[in-house]
Amino acid sequence: MKKNKGLFLFIAGLLTLILGLYLILFPSKKYITNIYIMCLGLVTIGVFYILSYISNKAYHFRPGWTLSQGFYMVIMGLLFFFTFDKELSDSTNIIFAMWALACGTSQIASSIKIRSLEYTKWWAILLYGILNLIFFIYFVVNPLSNVISSYISNGAYFVVSGLICFSELFNYKATLK
After folding, report:
1. DSSP-assigned states of every residue in 99-158
2. Mean pLDDT within 139-144
3. Out of 27, 42, 97, 116, which could bridge 151 as a Cys pair, Cβ 3.0 to 4.6 Å?
């Protein structure tokens, strides 16, 4: 059982990465199809984030951002699924900006907390939080909206989120020693 402690976090990272690559490389021509795929992906990935937090008691002492991100992803997926219409599609960047802001602030707060507990890899979570805040600014300002599609922007954020999730597996192991 000890070997499987990071399994849910690994699956969440893998699914996030796959969803991001799908949106970048193979988006459907129908906007609604992409939204429904994102809905299903967000709810599923969010559940895996929540399960990863619940299943590993060591996570309770640090970040906690996995739990908050899991809830936020489930809520965002359900929001997209049940209230999707043209108005919501126009505000997708704001929704992603709020997701990046929520993740970034919870990661920065978690890094400050674990730094006070003298964990060794606190700075990595701080960097993840700063990276999320950069994505927040990008989604709010959206400087490349005429150059690249929102699928690529959203997909890039999913890819980065998946890579952050994978790196957390190594940060937990290094921190808890």
Report:
1. HHHHHHHHHHHHHHHHHHTT-TTHHHHHHHHHHHHHHHHHHHH-TTTTTS-HHHHHHHHH
2. 79
3. 27
